[in-house]
Amino acid sequence: MSTERDGRYGPLKMRVDDHLKVKMRDGVEIGCRVYRPDDEGQYPALFAASPYQYETDDIPHSPLFLWREVGPVEWYVSHGYVYVHMDVRGSGNSDGAYEFLSPDEQQDYYEMIEWTGAQAWCDGNVGGIGQSYYAWAQWFMGIVNPPSLKCIAPYDGAVDIYRGCAYHGGVYCDFMNWWFSLMLRANNHHRPAGAPTGTQMDYDLGRDFVMRQTYDDWWQARSAYERLKEIKVPVLSIGHQGKMGLHERGNILGYEEVEVPKKLVLTGAANAFEAHDLFDKIDFHEDWLKPFYDHYLKGVDNGYPDQTPESRLFLRGADQWLDMDAWPPVNVERVPYYLGAGSTGSVTSLNDGTLSTEAPGDDGGVTRYSYPDPQWLVGTATPTPQGPDPVRRTLTFATEPLEEDVDVIGPIVLELYAESTAVDTDFFVRLTDQPPQDPTDREKGLQPLSINVAKGWLRASHREKDEARSTELRPFYTHTNPQEIEPGKIYKYEIEVLPCAYRFKKGHRIRMDLVNGDSPVTEFIFTHQYFYYKVGTDTFHHNTAHASRILLPVAN
Asked: Rounded to two decimals, what is the model's pTM?
């Protein structure tokens, strides 16, 4: 079925070819919708794939619909592009069984892109487009490498679902099960009263997310990270500093690993809503994505490869963009900030510890806490007259007020010397910016403002490093061989804290929060369940032999 729409963004009218079916190698028919200029011309195509049902493209932009991640479709058509939106097998209007980025789904990308490139309305050039799941799909589009594919632009997309989304540092995250069971499966099945029910997803993906606690063959088959070097087309990787629990690590790793013409953009979007909103803004596409597509799909000589910086980072705290020639940045010094047992008097926490560039002596002491804390209520947050407080009953380590601005740009590592009374324990790390507080509020016991800058996680039993993949800038863990820790023994843990680009302003404090859980107050939908067996006491050491410290990449 074809319909015509007036061109709202230019002279080209748009024709919509709806409910098309394309037969795959195994007989499964894939459903898609095609948006194209209403004429007889041939145009490059932008290709989007997800289980989010192309029929929802027409709903209004709203933070209620975070999964509507296709961008301004009609605007691209008005600028001479075809836009093809595919429902992956087992979703929407596609046949077959949905099995989450399975090898069959990956091969479907190849066949659908080749079908697109062969259509009369396409000039044979196809590029990937879309956010989140659409970005996951783009990494695999590049990996299967259909001849018609000329570029991909994964916006907000992980490359390692196990480490980046489902098991942060080996710690189970609630998000992926919520995403499938409460959102995706329901959205595909439920319909208004009187309408026939939609697609039923019978495969219990939620069970796999819960039962597969280690990085096994199932995860590996769905990990683009394992095969990024097979990508042969140019890549524009766009990530967001506020998507730490889902996609940020993937956009950075994806950029680092591919061996093709590539660019990295790291925005200052602070959360899922801001990242979603950006992708619906025409100005954003005009500035960041369209020049990329114009060059690689239309052959426009716009200077894109040579005149666009290798990486563009939004420096949060300063509200400015940085153009950089390399990532990771080379004009930084890895400055150690040591955790101390002193007191700053600046925040109410279990310890109110110190963070200093001065190394501890032999008598630097220890910091100890027991868990679960009897005052934890909303995860590790504590109820107060001002509302849930995620800091009051956790550990904090803060600097003195900074004497000058400090720009932290790049990967971060926490070296933590710890012992536990348990056979396993978790470490949740938050790097935060603590602005100055009114002394009167401090006297009242009110908490200072704190801004999340970066996060990291590690389960102690998952400490086995993948030595081939680890670097001094990023420890990489196998997550295949969990091993108990010996109670009372001091271990050195190297914890990946996600990269950032942030200015800690003069007068502010750099603070690191440490505990073994989190709260919806700070994590929204990316929380980690506090399991019944997380009971014990952890001790962190601060002395010459066991100098716990966080290594911050400080710009010169």
From this structure: 0.96
